C-alpha cells in the first residue's frame, strides 16, 4: 500500500500521487498461463509471485511494480491505508479459498487454521452462504476473532479431537467442504477425514516441509471418494482487488480486525521474528513507513 511516485510510460489508469495497493501476486496477464486463466502461475508454477521472490520486494521506501497497469489498484478515499493492505494477500487468498470451496447455500464447512488467511476464508464462507461454519485452531484470540468473522462453532484442537467433533456435529455425514489454512500434514488428513463423499477440499496453506503429502487412504476412498482437492495461490490483479475493496467499502468485511500489532519501519525484523514465533498472540502486524 503506498503512493505512486513515478509512472511508467505505458501506465494510464493511475497518476503520480495516487494512493494505490499492489497485490503480492503481480501477473503479466499476457503469457500462456495468464491467458489460460492461471494468472497466479504467470510464466510457470508459482510464477505470479514476483515481489520479494524473483524481484526486489516491497520493504523499501520505493519499489517497482511490474505490469502496473494491471496490478495497481486505486484505493478510494473511503478505505484506510490499513484496510487496503489486506486486499493485497489475506483477503484475496482467503476469499478465493471460500469461492473454490463452493459451499451450497446453507451447506457446511470446516476451516482448519484461523490465521489471517483462515480468518478471511471464514468471512468468505459466511458471505458465500454457508449454513454452518466450524473452525479449528488452538489460540483463544484467533477462535474469538473467528466468531466475529462468522464462525458458528470453534474447536480447540488441543482440547478436543476436531475430526470426531466435526463428524458428530454433522451426524456422521461430514462437511460439504473443508479448507486447509495451515500447511500441515495433520490438517490435510483432517480435511480428507471430515469432508463428505463428493465434497471439496481446498488447500490454502503452504506445505513447506517434505517432498510429498500423504492422503489418508480410507478417507480418500482408496481413490474413489469423489472428493475434489483444490489449491489456491493468492489471485493477483487490480480487478480482483477492486472486489475486495468493495467488500470493505460496503462493510461486508472489516479486515483491520486482523491487526494485532503495529510497528515502525525500523522494527521490521522484530515484526518478522514475532510472526515466526506467533509471539504475544500476534495475528497480523502492520508496518508503518
Ligand atoms: Zn503471465
Which sequence of SSEs, written as H and E, runs from N to C? EEHHEHHEHEHEHEHEEHEHE
Bound small molecules, by name, code or SMILES, are: zinc ion
Strand content: 15-25%
CATH fold topology of the largest domain: Rossmann fold
The tally of structural domains comes to 3
Mean pLDDT: 97
Shape: globular
Instruction: Give the C-alpha Rg.
Output: 19 Å
Helix content: 25-40%
Number of strands: 11
List keywords for this structure.
289 residues; alpha/beta; six-stranded parallel sheet; three-stranded antiparallel sheet; globular; single chain; Quinone Oxidoreductase, Chain A, domain 1; 3 domains; binds zinc ion; Rossmann fold; 10 helices
Descriptive notes:
The mean pLDDT is 97. With 289 residues, this protein is α/β, with parallel strands linked by helices. The N and C termini lie close together (10 Å). It has three domains: 107 residues, Medium-chain alcohol dehydrogenases, catalytic domain (Quinone Oxidoreductase, Chain A, domain 1), CATH 3.90.180; 132 residues, 3-Layer(aba) Sandwich (Rossmann fold), CATH 3.40.50; 31 residues, no CATH class. It is globular, with a radius of gyration of 19 Å. The longest helix is centred in the N-terminal third of the chain and has 12 residues. The protein binds zinc ion (ZN). The site of zinc ion has 9 residues, from helix 1.
Layout of SSEs?
Blueprint: E1 2-3, E2 19-22, H1 32-35, H2 68-71, E3 72-74, H3 81-85, H4 90-101, E4 108-112, H5 116-127, E5 132-137, H6 140-148, E6 153-156, H7 162-169, E7 175-180, H8 185-194, E8 195-203, E9 228-231, H9 238-249, E10 259-264, H10 268-277, E11 284-288
Parallel strand pairs: 4-5, 4-7, 5-6, 7-8, 8-9, 10-11
Antiparallel strand pairs: 1-2, 2-3
Helix pairs in contact: 4-5, 7-8
Bound molecules: zinc ion (ZN).
Zinc ion binds at residues 27-31, 33-34, 42-43.
Amino acid at each position: 500500500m503506498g503512493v505512486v511516485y513515478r509512472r511508467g510510460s505505458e501506465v494510464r489508469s493511475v497518476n503520480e500521487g495516487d494512493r494505490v495497493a499492489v497485490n503480492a501476486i503481480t501477473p503479466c496477464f499476457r503469457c500462456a498461463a495468464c491467458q489460460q486463466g492461471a494468472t497466479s502461475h504467470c510464466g510457470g508454477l508459482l510464477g505470479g509471485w514476483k515481489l520479494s521472490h524473483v524481484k526486489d520486494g516491497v520493504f523499501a521506501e520505493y519499489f517497482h511494480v511490474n505490469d502496473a497497469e494491471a496490478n495497481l489498484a486505486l484505493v478510494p478515499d473511503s478505505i484506510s491505508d490499513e484496510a487496503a493492505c489486506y486486499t493485497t494477500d489475506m483477503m484475496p487468498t482467503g476469499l478465493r479459498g471460500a469461492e473454490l470451496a463452493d459451499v451450497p447455500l446453507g451447506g457446511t464447512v470446516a476451516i482448519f487454521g484461523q490465521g489471517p488467511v483462515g480468518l478471511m476464508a471464514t468471512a468468505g464462507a459466511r458471505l458465500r452462504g454457508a449454513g454452518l461454519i466450524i473452525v479449528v485452531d488452538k489460540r483463544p484470540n484467533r477462535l474469538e476473532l473467528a466468531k466475529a468473522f462468522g464462525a458458528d462453532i470453534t474447536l480447540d484442537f488441543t482440547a478436543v479431537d476436531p475430526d470426531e467433533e466435526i463428524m458428530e456435529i454433522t451426524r456422521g455425514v461430514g462437511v460439504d467442504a473443508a479448507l486447509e489454512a495451515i500447511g500441515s500434514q495433520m490438517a490435510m488428513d483432517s480435511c480428507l477425514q471430515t469432508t463428505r463423499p463428493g465434497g471439496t477440499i481446498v488447500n490454502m496453506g503452504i506445505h513447506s516441509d517434505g517432498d510429498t503429502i500423504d492422503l489418508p487412504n480410507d478417507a480418500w476412498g482408496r481413490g474413489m471418494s469423489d472428493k475434489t482437492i483444490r489449491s489456491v495461490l493468492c489471485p493477483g490483479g487490480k480487478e480482483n482487488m477492486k472486489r475486495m475493496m468493495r467488500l470493505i467499502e460496503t462493510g461486508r468485511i472489516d479486515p483491520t480486525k486482523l491487526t494485532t500489532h503495529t510497528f515502525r519501519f525500523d522494527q521490521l525484523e522484530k515484526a518478522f521474528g514475532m510472526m515466526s514465533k506467533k509471539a504475544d498472540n500476534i495475528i497480523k502486524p502492520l508496518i508503518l513507513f
